[in-house]
Amino acid sequence: MGGLHQRLEDLADDQMKRRDGWPRTPGVLSAQLGRLAPNLFAAGIEVWVGKHGEKGVPVRIGSVKVGKSASGASGASAGPRDEPESETVI
């Protein structure tokens, strides 16, 4: 999550970073994404957070078809898939 946080820090201007809701640490960003994930999914955006590894926590944000169940067409039990259907690796 630290890599995503750093990229956001690099892209945002100082005024944006001074706002009350700005995630000041990777942990805060992770918590915010977790809270927003259901609403983002309903809007066609899936947030996938992998397991912590040697290089940190991988995060992928990708598009999904609105109204598609999280289990996909395979008939697997409902729940998050391993990875988003279409992704932008951050």
Summarize the structure in words.
Mean pLDDT is 79; it is low at 71-79. The chain is an alpha+beta fold and 90 residues long. The radius of gyration is 14 Å and the shape is globular. The protein contains three helices and three strands, in the order H-H-H-E-E-E. It has one domain. A three-stranded antiparallel β-sheet has the order 1-2-3.
Features:
90 residues, alpha+beta, three-stranded antiparallel sheet, 3 helices, globular
Estimated share of beta-strand residues: 5-15%
Secondary-structure-derived class: alpha+beta
Number of domains: 1
User: On the 0-100 scale, what is the average pLDDT?
Assistant: 79
Give a count of the beta strands, DSSP E runs of length 2 or more: 3
Quaternary status of these chains?
single chain
Helix content: 25-40%
Order of helices and strands: HHHEEE
* Largest sheet, strands/sense/barrel: 3 strands, antiparallel
Strand ordering within the main sheet: 1-2-3
What's the short story on this structure?
With 90 residues, the chain is of the alpha+beta class. It has helices at residues 2-11, 14-17, 26-42, and strands at residues 45-49, 59-63, 88-89.
Spell out the blueprint of helices and strands.
Elements: H1 2-11, H2 14-17, H3 26-42, E1 45-49, E2 59-63, E3 88-89
Antiparallel strand pairs: 1-2, 2-3
